[in-house]
Amino acid sequence: MPHIQPLSPHVADLIAAGEVVERPASVAKELLENAIDAGATAVTVELRSGGMTYLRVSDDGCGIAAAELPTAFLRHATSKLRTAEDLAAIGTLGFRGEALAAISSVSRLDVTTREHGAPVGAALHLEGGVPGTVEEVGCPEGTTVVVRDLFFNTPARLKFMKRDSAEAAAIAGLVAHLALSHPDISFKLIKDGEEALHTPGDGALRSAVYAAQGRAFALSLIPVSARDGALAAEGFVTRPLEGRGTRGMQAFFVNGRFIKSQLLTAALEEAYANRSMKGKFPGCVLCVTLPFDMVDVNVHPAKTVVKFVNEKQVFDLVYHGVSDALDREAKPAELARSAASQAAPQAASQAYAPRADFFRSMTAEQFRASQAGAAAKPPVPPAPAAAQKPPAPSPAAAPSFQTRIPAVSLGELGGKARVSDYVRKERGAVPEPPVSAAPAVKAPAEPEQTAMLPETPVPWRIAGEVLDTYIVCEDGECNIWLIDKHAAHERVNFDRFKAQSEPIMSQSLLTPLVAQLPAAEYAATAESFPLLREFGFGCEDFGDGAILIRDIPADVDEGEAVSALEEIAGKLAAGGKADPAAARDSLLATLACKAAIKGGWKSDERELRDLVDKVQSGEIEYCPHGRPVKVRLTQRDLEKMFKRIV
Ligand code: ADP
Ligand code: MG
User: Fold this and answer.
1) HSE of 604 in the Cβ direction (CA atoms, 13 Å)?
2) N or C: which terminus of the chain has fewer CB atoms within 10 Å of its end residue's CB?
3) Phi first, then psi: what are they for 279, rounded to 5°?
């Protein structure tokens, strides 16, 4: 065994630095947090080559006294914490006193700073953590830190850096989040000489959202405001129908700190249960504030995880706050509707009239007339008796029902025969061991007819479609099948895509679409253009989280393309699937889903027939997410429901 020795301070610093400074975005985060802690009202971030060669953060905050400047760069030197008790009530973003030490140890750093009211400023240069001497300089009040050549002395770390554009995107995401949590501070981001983001700092959250997340997102929001004692939740959530393909647009802040929290995500999404579209996620900018001693932020070095002392109370506050906001949003429409019906009772009764007609039964004469008409003659004019009565409920009163649920008849049988009769008949012809019981049920066989019948299994009779989602079928054995048309189609698509060895066919769009992605997803997507090509997406990096979509998979509807890409981006960013085949399958599943007919869409008869055939043949059983495509209801089940049997 080699001798055990203490690490040299330099190596120990580098190891510690590695925990705080992983990439340019972590440098930007620490410097920005320092600026906020210093009480700045305006902060500028400037970066070149993704922050690797040059990263500057300037603020107009309190500044650092010249005499204390070198101390700020010592490990565990902080002005924000004095005693262990202070740790239990942290109100600043920084508190570990590690950032400046860590950043300076892996870069060439320059700081210039002037305290408020001080006659002159001070400057200091550090190279790999080794400080020069403090010099007097003229500079504005506040602090500017310039970090150059990040990781110049740790080549191993350099190798792990992503593309510059990915780093720049991560920093842009970070600035956006800070801007949202501090609407009273004006943030400016300058990327390779160009202004990429600029928030007004007017104190209004909505204007920060507008500047940082874009106009479309800002317009999709409704306000949330809830309070429970010392706890408060304020901010905005998306309207239920404005869901996104991923959770990327969910931003939670606790006491002004951007955090990731399963608890808050769950509380938010629970409020949308039964309101939002399936497979979509709500977006939000939600700020939770609570007394500092009711939350622990010192759980993770990156400080993006917090622990609530009373989780249930926080969950309830967010859940009810969001639910109430959504209820309020839904109410005005209802109120308007009921007001309209009171103001114009005539219009309302008119709207309901067809339904009343629909449920009224026909008179015997009318029924006979309609039968006769269907058999031979053109439609019979209404009987004179009916003409004297108020609006005659004619059989034509329900055409919409007829077209919505077409009964697909079996050609060979004519419209009226039940498929079960037919199947029993055919069964009778197949040589079977003699059945002793109930021979009367068995229909007499007709050999000539049987010879002409196809060998393939008898198709299920499609009785219709309900809720524009489920196909109702009947088989020859008194079973009723309900088929989820979306799930079934999804599986058909998935199998087809998977069997295909060439890239998925794409269609070019006349006008490109734009997907606005959260930073991490944007970065992952920008790196995966060749892969996306294989899936039929032709994309371009449009900068600032925007991906331009020029081509989309031929099977995917244009209206679904952005959400398909959002979902794929989410999967790309999450990574996680070590097995490339599994990763590919997961992306194909997204595509299959987006290319599938949706529950709620009108489908034509051929589409339904095709799906039913595939389900009936047993070719497909589960959708790519593992949900069943069909459920069975037996005659016995029905008889039980109707208490015919017990
Ligand atoms: P921490 O933020 O955890 O205290 P840092 O290493 O980030 O530790 O900073 C050390 C100290 O330097 C801070 O406590 C603060 O007093 C001072 N400081 C850092 N950046 C600024 C700034 N932009 N403006 C004023 N003071 C700053
Ligand atoms: Mg700090």
Assistant:
1) 1
2) N
3) 80, 5
CA distances from 643 to 453, 482, 557, 632, 638 (A): 38, 22, 46, 19, 8
Separation of CA 101 and ligand 2 centre (Å): 10
pLDDT band at residue 435 using 50, 70 and 90 as cut-offs: very low
Tokens of 289: 């504030």
8 Å CB contact between 612 and 483: yes
Question: Measured between alpha carbons, how far is residue 116 from residues 134, 228, 486 in Å?
Answer: 18, 38, 64
Q: What is the pTM of this model?
A: 0.56
- In this prediction, residues 616-623 reach a mean pLDDT of 82
User: Which residue, among 172, 171, 183, 178, has the nearest Cα to 34 in the 3D structure?
Assistant: 178
From residue 240, how far is each of 34, 149, 259, 566 by CA, in Å? Answer: 37, 46, 23, 18
C-beta contacts of 575-578 below 8 A and 24+ residues apart = 575/524
Residues 465 and 461: their CA atoms lie apart, in Å, by 12
Give the Cα separation of 345 and 339 in Å (integer).
Answer: 10
Instruction: Give how far Cα 177 sits from Cα of 197, 213, 248, 259, Å.
Output: 12, 9, 12, 10
Ligand 1 midpoint to CA 98 (Å): 9
Tell me if residue 85 falls in helix, strand or coil.
helix
**Predicted confidence (pLDDT) at residue 320 exceeds the cutoff of 90:** yes
**Which residues, listed in sequence order, are joined to residue 371 by a DSSP beta bridge?**
none
Give the residue, 323 or 334, on which the prediction is more confident. 323
Query: Parallel, antiparallel, or unpaired for β 135-137 and 121-127?
Result: antiparallel
Task: Give ligand 1 pocket residues (Cβ under 6 A).
Answer: 30, 34-35, 38, 59, 61-64, 72, 77-80, 94-101, 143
More confident residue, 144 or 395: 144
236-240, 304-308, 370-374, 627-631 — most confident range = 236-240
Instruction: Report yes or no: 616 and 459 within 8 Å, Cβ to Cβ.
Output: yes
Report the sign of the C-alpha dihedral through residues 355, 356, 357, 363, in that order.
positive
pLDDT at 436: 41
Q: Which residues pair with 130 in a beta bridge?
A: 127
Whole-number pLDDT of residue 78: 81
Closest CA to 60 of 119, 140, 142: 142
Task: Specify the pLDDT at position 89.
Answer: 63
Instruction: List the one residue out of 110, 107, 111 whose CA is nearest residue 150.
Output: 107
335 in helix, strand or coil? helix
Sequence-distant (≥ 6) Cβ neighbours of residue 335 within 8 angstroms: none
- Residue 203 is encoded by which pair of tokens? 């104190």
Dihedral of CA atoms 373, 379, 385, 389 in degrees, nearest 10, equals 130
Q: At what angle do helices 558-574 and 519-526 cross, to 10 degrees?
A: 90
Give the whole-angstrom CA distance, residue 46 versus residue 29. Answer: 13
Q: Ligand 1 centroid vs 33 CA: distance in angstroms? A: 9
- Length of the chain, please? 646
Gap between the Cα atoms of 389 and 98, Å rounded: 90
CA–chain centroid gap for 311, Å, is 24
Atom of ligand 1 nearest to the CA of 59: 23
Identify any residues that bridge with 257 across adjacent strands, giving them in sequence order: 254
